[in-house]
Each structure stands twice: as C-alpha cells, then as structure tokens.
Amino acid sequence: MTRGPAPKDNAVRRNAHPHAQQLPAGTQPGRELPKALGITTGGAKRFWKTWASAPQTSTWTETDWAELEITTKLVDGLFLGDLKLAGEIRQRVAKWGATVEDRARLRMTIDKDPESTEEPEKAPEQSPEVNMDEELYKLLNGG
Q1: Strand, helix or coil for residue 118
Q2: What is the pTM of this model?
Q3: Which of 29, 27, 75, 33 is nearest to 54 (CA)?
Q4: For every one of its 143 residues, what pLDDT tens digit does the chain have, with 9 covering 90 and above?
Q5: Cα–chain center distance at 127
Q6: Phi then psi for 108, rounded to 5 degrees?
Q7: DSSP assignment, residue 108?
Q8: Residues 6+ apart with CB under 8 A from 132
Q9: In whole angstroms, how large is the CA radius of gyration of the chain?
Q10: I need a surface site. Which of 26, 27, 35, 54 has the fewest CB within 10 A?
Q11: What local confidence, expressed as pLDDT, does residue 16 receive?
C-alpha cells in the first residue's frame, strides 16, 4: 500500500531552469590559434586546441573568443614558470564549464553522442543444463 496521492498521469517537472543549456556532443570546428598572440609553449597551444574545439564553443560570441585569447596568454605565462597565474586561469575556465561541477553549477549539459554509445557487455551465456538454484544450493551447503 502506498502513501499519499497517486502521481498525475502526465507529471511535468516544473523546476527546469530558464537558462539551462544543452550543448552538442563531440568537438566543434573551433578556430585557429592567432599567430599575433605570440604563444610559445606547447601547453598553451594544447590549451587553445582543447578549448577551441570544446562543445561549449558552439554558443560562443566574439567576446568569449577574446576571453579565450587572454586566458591562453595567461596559460602561456604559467607554462613559462609564473605559477601565480594558476588561480586566475582556474577562475576563468570555471566560467566556461571546465569541470563536471562547473557545468552543473552553470546548468550546462552535453548531449550524448549517438555514434559513441557503447553497448553494455553482455553476461556470458550459460549452458542450458546448468541450474542456478542447484548451484547455489550446493555452494551454500558445502556439497
């Protein structure tokens, strides 16, 4: 016996956030790293490549790309040894949804890629002559 009123047939979730974002799965075409930035370290180049092709960039405007340029300069400085820049970089990438926690706070979800859905592994098939009840009985009774 259940308690309380029965749920409505067509229950609707009413706490959907008006600014929630659904982002496409997979990498985006992105942009090339501007040579005028003068990026010298491989780490900063990798940072640009990672963020320029991230799902978040599908909704970016010019101001967002300008922020990525500034942040990439900071990352270049970090890889050149200025460790004081790490906190500033972390704050900036958090605003883009760098981690799972950041994306949850921003109400940002990434659609699952239908091409990369992996089928769960199937349990090995047992021969028909094996009776699981008998096997369990033998195991529990030491016989």
Answers
A1: coil
A2: 0.64
A3: 27
A4: 668 887 777 666 666 666 666 776 777 788 899 999 999 999 999 999 999 998 888 888 999 999 999 999 999 999 999 999 999 999 999 998 888 898 888 887 777 765 554 554 555 555 555 565 676 666 667 76
A5: 41
A6: -115, 125
A7: E
A8: 126
A9: 25
A10: 35
A11: 66
* DSSP code of residue 6: P
Residue tagged 């098939």 (tokens): 125
Instruction: Give the angle 95-98-102 at the CA atoms, nearest 5°.
Output: 65
Classified as helix, coil or strand, 122 is: coil
Helix, coil or strand: residue 110: strand
Q: CA angle, 14 as apex, 25 and 94 as ends, to 5°?
A: 40
Q: How far is CA 9 from CA 1, 2, 32, 111, in A?
A: 19, 16, 51, 27
Structure-token pair, residue 56:
């978040």
Cα angle value 131/136/137 (rounded, 5°): 100
Helix ranges, the chain (H): 42-52, 62-79, 86-94, 100-105, 132-140
**What residue type is 117 in one-letter code?**
T
